[in-house]
Design goal:
Elements lengths: L8 E7 L3 H8 L4 H11 L8 E7 L10 E7 L3 H16 L6 H7 L6 E7 L14 E3 L8 E9 L2 H10 L9 H24 L7 H9 L2 H8 L5 E9 L4 E5 L8 E4 L3 E5 L2 H8 L7 E2 L5 E4 L5 E4 L1 H11 L7 H14 L6 H22 L1 H11 L3 H5 L3 H14 L1
Antiparallel strand pairs: 1-4, 1-10, 2-3, 2-4, 5-6, 6-7, 7-8, 8-12, 9-10, 9-11, 12-13
Helix pairs in contact: 5-6, 6-7, 6-8, 10-11, 11-12, 11-13, 12-13, 12-15
């Protein structure tokens, strides 16, 4: 059996404050761009065939570019990319401009940043295969910037699915297939919102309403079930939505961090720690099958899809109403929570969960345990806030209630 490797590296940054905030606090409008450079350099070992970056501006005026991309080949690709950016930034005299001008006009200075380090798994080479890939459209909410660390095992199946929708891909490659498939799902999401508001709103307000209500979780839900393999897929729309999704088996690594200033995703935990100078405990592993999304408005969500799938698979086995099935459900569930719990707290929470499940079964039967297990699914919100003690108390409360 071929050994699984991690290969490519990804980096994403979403600024949650106006650019003026970073200029006042950190002395530069290029805070995000500088952090992206450091994150890519610290992951240089993950891919030396090429590199690429993408930037999305949220406040560009019509007629001005709002999605920027730069790519290069070779071991010196990162340095080459940022060397290429420097003359344009210096010519624009970005640091001496007003915040309003920078938000609207400055090249490669925006609110969303994407970086990729390429390690080919297909043997294909050339600049056209270097991420990020870009799907263009005149409507900002239909533009898609995409990069990833992945190796899909069913590219032919994805290709046939794309063609069956009436699309005609120009290139047969896994990245192009994912770009077109996600693009199709993004178009559907746009059209869903269009139908909802077309009778009450006129353009350009209708387009603004579509941008404000895009749900990238729905886009991923429509596209990702077909994917088979190891992957971390990162994307950003031209209107300001961002996402990162990890494969259900956790084959490819992904970590994230967010506070009131920034959301960051990377392939390695230490990269986020050192670049942002934060504690190891503050950097979370993205659970297998889960996604972190950021809306245009800056709302951050972590969707624990692996938990949802675990419940659906395991709750169906409770039909025989035997106690060991109850224990299995809760034990399996808490194993999936290991990414969000400090190791010293994990065994205690598993013990509490199993004990509570047994108590519920003894008092109310298997039906009550199903409700108990479904309630446990909501505990990840507490766990994400590092409230381990509160989670344990909530478990005890749920067990007593049932």
């Amino acid at each position: 059996m071929e050994q699984l490797k991690h290969e490519c590296g990804v980096a994403m940054i979403r600024l949650l404050k106006p650019l003026e905030y970073y200029k006042e606090k950190y002395g530069t409008y290029c805070f995000g761009l500088s952090k992206l450079y450091l994150m890519m350099e610290k992951q240089h070992n993950r891919g030396q065939e090429g590199a690429g970056i993408g930037v999305v501006k949220l406040h560009a005026e019509p007629g001005s570019e709002y999605m920027f991309r730069e790519r290069a080949l070779g071991t010196g690709a990162i340095q080459e990319i940022f060397d290429n950016l420097r003359p344009a930034l210096e010519k624009a005299d970005v640091e001496n401009r007003s915040a309003e001008w920078v938000e609207k006009e400055a090249p490669f200075v925006g609110e969303i940043y994407m970086g990729h380090l390429r390690y080919s798994t297909t043997g294909r080479s050339g600049l056209s295969y270097v991420h990020p890939f870009l799907r263009r459209n005149n409507w900002r909410s239909r533009n898609l910037l995409l990069c990833g660390n992945f190796n899909m095992t069913n590219v032919e199946e994805i290709f046939k699915s794309v063609v069956s929708k009436g699309q005609h891909p120009r290139i047969y490659s896994d990245t192009v297939m994912l770009l077109e498939q996600l693009g199709y799902a993004l178009d559907k999401e746009n059209h869903r919102i269009y139908r909802q508001y077309r009778d009450t709103l006129a353009e350009p307000q209708l387009s603004k309403e579509i941008e404000a209500h895009l749900d990238m979780k729905e886009v991923l839900k429509n596209a990702a079930p077909l994917w088979d393999g190891g992957y971390v897929i990162c994307g950003a729309t031209g209107s300001g939505d961002m996402f990162a999704l990890r494969d259900p088996h956790g084959i490819r690594p992904a970590f994230y961090y967010f506070d009131d200033e920034v959301v960051v995703v990377a392939s390695e935990r230490p990269v986020i720690q050192t670049v942002l100078n934060v504690r190891r405990a503050d950097v979370r592993e993205l659970a297998p099958g889960s996604a972190v999304t950021v809306s245009k408005q800056g709302v951050v969500e972590v969707s624990l899809k692996s938990l949802d799938h675990a419940y659906k698979r395991n709750l169906s086995r409770i039909g025989d109403k035997r106690k060991h099935c109850v224990v299995k459900v809760i034990s399996y569930t808490f194993k999936h929570l290991r990414h969000y719990i400090a190791s010293e707290s994990l065994s205690l929470l598993i013990y509490i969960g199993i004990a509570a499940a047994r108590k519920v079964y003894a008092l109310k039967g298997a039906t009550a345990v199903v409700a108990f297990a479904q309630n446990v699914a909501h505990l990840h919100y507490t766990l994400l806030a590092n409230s381990h003690g509160a989670a344990g108390s909530q478990l005890a409360h749920i067990g007593a209630a049932h």
